[in-house]
């Protein structure tokens, strides 16, 4: 099972080495006008279900639920008996409320000059046409639709069209391979695929259709393939194919949104997990929209009339589903969507976009922040970032140094940073500071949101005291929780509910500091066991990144005859830092003085890049293979497979 920790009997808890004393209070003005005040925590504590009912009331229901939560552990039903339409809530109701002229999306293509502004009224027409087209193609409620697209407006439109008619979408990252796409189409038994000829990436048209052609050739269950023309590149054509513009453009711009059951499936999203076949995480309608929209409004202190919100994630990742599409649209927010990479055509592209649209809320990932650190602070300094008021982080633990850099060089030392912990499985943010309330500590996700009951437990599932480390768990069901793994209830129970009796185990290590605040320590599969001590990769990485010469670090435990496992660190130096002979010794000494000698890496390798998934998570598993001189495991979810070659070449030098 993925949640197994090597030798966990040896040591009661994960190590708790890092001390961080910096704190950032919320700006007074922001606190005074914040959407959520500290009372929310008390209200939710008094009556958790009543709290979520009020959050659900922010949506428009065709029929109110009769039971807030039906908990047949570990299977949850929220807002039972309620009926609503997600697309109506995300689009039509705003137009009916007179907000049709408000911009829903500023879309920015990668090639400069490719941009499009879409108001809520336009979005309503586009979604209605797409929904009519899907119905003409025979798609019915409950059918699965696979979506394999670049970051173009037709992607959220396709998702909303599915939601509108009750079809279940399964968005597959536009960078995944033929076999990854084929497996996902097959697992969900999708009857329709929506794709594009290609998208722009790193300055070039990047074809998508050939991947779909190969995958669909092996999936007889797929009846039709709808193709958006984005790049205009040559495509092969089969009997199943139909152009998006041929079928969608001629449809009526009205479509009646029938209400769906609160527990009708909304989408499946596959997460790779560490081993085995990808898990199809199933999310449903009412609870998912309740928690994504409430958290988007609360955590980013969203003022929909004035904020310009930009989440830089790919929509093919859960962050894009919940915080580019469903949460922001349900709140009638104005968002930016960007198609391309941060370095195309130049390394200031993100800051140029912030300046152009006067972005007020920016939500990005630690991997991006560390890349910007590596490129140097002089790049963002060339742009006007004064519109920003709140910064968010998601995807990995954010190292304190990266947090402080983000706050200073992007946020001008005035914007609160919210470090949001959650997962594909949780559907929405769970643990995070609130920008108008929390005195945030760099590197800490701080505290469970109102209505969420999180805890840190030891091996036996007992809460650890303040100052202790262990395993993160969630004690009570929450509205946007996954309902199951598609087609595999047993795997759902085994993966998430079997490690600790009655508790949801997300697979992350955590510690609770002396104030009771929560710090995430990375996946427990990545925890290292050195001379009988469980040491978290996150803490050693953060210690390395706190050295002025280091931009990014990945740490793994490699088997060692003396210590069981030994720490091997891969580091990327900052732009201005030179690789010197004694850099390894210097960094080893730095870790020893920051965390203690037990955490000192056996080896330090300076590398040009680190292996990452498309959502920017470091694939430590592959680094472990390198450190232990093994053949590489599955690399299909890697962004760039040439990275591993570059790293392997570095290895002998450090021995
Ligand atoms: C939203 C998303 C989930 C895993 C999760 C954890 C890590 C995400 C984090 C974080 C520390 C944060 N993670 N946010 N760790 N601090 N703020 O990333 O979903 O792709 O399913 O990944 O990501 O390890 O368990 P997903």
From TrEMBL:
InterPro entries: Ac_CoA_lig (IPR011904), ACAS_N (IPR032387), AMP-bd_C (IPR025110), AMP-bd_C_sf (IPR045851), AMP-binding_CS (IPR020845), AMP-dep_synth/lig_dom (IPR000873), ANL_N_sf (IPR042099). This is Acetyl-coenzyme A synthetase. Its cofactor is Mg(2+). It catalyses: acetate + ATP + CoA = acetyl-CoA + AMP + diphosphate. It comes from Thermobispora bispora (strain ATCC 19993 / DSM 43833 / CBS 139.67 / JCM 10125 / KCTC 9307 / NBRC 14880 / R51). The keyword rRNA processing does not apply. CoA binds at residues 201-204, 319, 531. Pfam families: ACAS_N (PF16177), AMP-binding (PF00501), AMP-binding_C (PF13193). NCBIfam families: Ac_CoA_lig_AcsA, PRK00174.1. The modification N6-acetyllysine is found at residue 617. Its EC number is 6.2.1.1. It is an enzyme of class 6 (ligase). GO terms for molecular function: acetate-CoA ligase activity; AMP binding; ATP binding; metal ion binding. ATP binds at residues 395-397, 419-424, 508, 523. GO terms for cellular component: cytosol. Catalyzes the conversion of acetate into acetyl-CoA (AcCoA), an essential intermediate at the junction of anabolic and catabolic pathways. AcsA undergoes a two-step reaction. In the first half reaction, AcsA combines acetate with ATP to form acetyl-adenylate (AcAMP) intermediate. In the second half reaction, it can then transfer the acetyl group from AcAMP to the sulfhydryl group of CoA, forming the product AcCoA. Acetylated. Deacetylation by the SIR2-homolog deacetylase activates the enzyme. The keyword Metal-binding applies. One of its GO terms (biological process) is acetyl-CoA biosynthetic process from acetate. Residues 98-478 form the AMP-dependent synthetase/ligase domain. Belongs to the ATP-dependent AMP-binding enzyme family. Keywords: Acetylation, ATP-binding, Ligase, Magnesium, Metal-binding, Nucleotide-binding. Mg(2+) binds at residues 545, 547, 550. Residues 38-90 form the Acetyl-coenzyme A synthetase N-terminal domain. The gene is acsA. Residues 539-617 form the AMP-binding enzyme C-terminal domain.
């Amino acid at each position: 099972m993925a949640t197994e920790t090597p030798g966990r009997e040896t040591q009661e808890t994960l190590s708790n080495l890092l001390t961080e004393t910096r704190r950032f209070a919320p700006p007074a003005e922001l606190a005074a006008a914040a959407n959520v005040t500290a009372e929310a925590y008390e209200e939710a504590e008094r009556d958790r279900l009543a709290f979520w009912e009020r959050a659900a009331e922010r949506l428009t229901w065709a029929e109110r639920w009769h039971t807030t939560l039906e908990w047949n552990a570990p299977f949850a039903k929220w807002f039972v008996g309620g009926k609503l339409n997600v697309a109506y809530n995300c689009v039509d109701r705003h137009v009916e409320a007179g907000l049709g002229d408000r911009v829903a999306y500023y879309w920015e293509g990668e090639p400069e000059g490719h941009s499009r502004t879409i108001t809520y009224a336009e979005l309503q027409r586009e979604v209605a046409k797409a929904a009519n087209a899907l119905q003409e193609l025979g798609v019915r409620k409950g059918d699965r639709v696979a979506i394999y697209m670049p970051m173009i407006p037709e992607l959220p439109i396709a998702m909303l069209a599915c939601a509108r008619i009750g079809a279940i979408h399964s968005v597959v990252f536009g960078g995944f391979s033929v076999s990854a796409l084929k497996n996902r189409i097959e697992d969900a038994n999708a009857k329709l695929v929506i794709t594009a000829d290609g998208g722009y990436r790193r300055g070039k048209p990047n074809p998508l259709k050939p991947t779909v052609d190969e995958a669909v050739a092996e999936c007889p269950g797929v009846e039709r393939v709808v193709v958006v023309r984005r790049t205009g590149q040559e495509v092969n054509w089969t009997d199943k194919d139909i152009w998006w513009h041929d079928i969608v453009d001629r449809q009526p711009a009205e479509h009646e949104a029938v209400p769906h059951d609160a527990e009708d499936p909304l989408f499946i999203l596959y997460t790779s997990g560490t081993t085995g076949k990808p898990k199809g995480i199933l999310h449903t309608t009412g609870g998912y929209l309740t928690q994504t929209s409430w958290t988007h409004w609360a955590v980013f202190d969203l003022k929909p009339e004035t904020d310009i919100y930009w989440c830089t994630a790919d929509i093919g990742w859960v962050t894009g589903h919940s915080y580019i599409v469903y949460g922001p649209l349900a709140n009638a927010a104005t968002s930016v969507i960007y198609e391309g990479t941060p370095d195309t055509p130049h390394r200031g592209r993100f800051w140029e976009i912030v300046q152009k649209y006067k972005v007020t809320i920016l939500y990005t990932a630690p991997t991006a922040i560390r890349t910007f650190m590596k490129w140097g602070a002089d790049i963002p300094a060339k742009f006007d970032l004064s519109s920003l008021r709140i910064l968010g982080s998601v995807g990995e633990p954010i190292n304190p140094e990266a947090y402080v850099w983000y706050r200073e060089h992007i946020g001008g030392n005035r914007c609160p940073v919210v470090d949001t912990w959650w997962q594909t499985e949780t559907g929405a943010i769970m643990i995070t500071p609130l920008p108008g309330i929390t005195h945030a500590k760099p590197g800490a996700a701080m505290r469970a949101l109102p209505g969420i009951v999180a805890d840190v437990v030891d091996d036996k599932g007992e809460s650890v005291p303040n100052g202790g480390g262990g395993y993160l768990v969630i004690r009570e069901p929450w509205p946007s929780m996954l309902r199951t793994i598609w087609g595999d209830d047993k795997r759902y129970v085994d993966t998430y509910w079997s490690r600790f009796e009655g508790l949801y185990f997300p697979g992350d290590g955590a510690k609770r500091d002396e104030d009771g605040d929560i710090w995430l320590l990375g996946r427990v599969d990545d925890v290292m066991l050195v001379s009988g001590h469980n040491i978290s990769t996150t803490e050693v990485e953060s210690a390395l990144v706190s050295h002025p010469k280091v931009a990014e670090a990945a740490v793994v435990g490699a088997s060692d005859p003396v210590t069981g496992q030994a720490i091997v660190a891969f580091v990327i130096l900052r732009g201005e830092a030179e690789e010197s002979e004694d850099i390894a010794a210097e960094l080893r000494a730095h870790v020893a003085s920051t965390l203690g000698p037990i955490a000192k890496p056996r080896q330090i390798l300076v590398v040009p890049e680190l292996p990452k998934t498309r959502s920017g998570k470091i694939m430590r598993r592959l680094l472990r293979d390198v450190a232990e001189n093994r053949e590489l495991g599955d690399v299909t979810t890697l962004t760039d497979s040439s990275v591993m070659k570059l790293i392997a070449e570095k290895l002998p030098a450090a021995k």
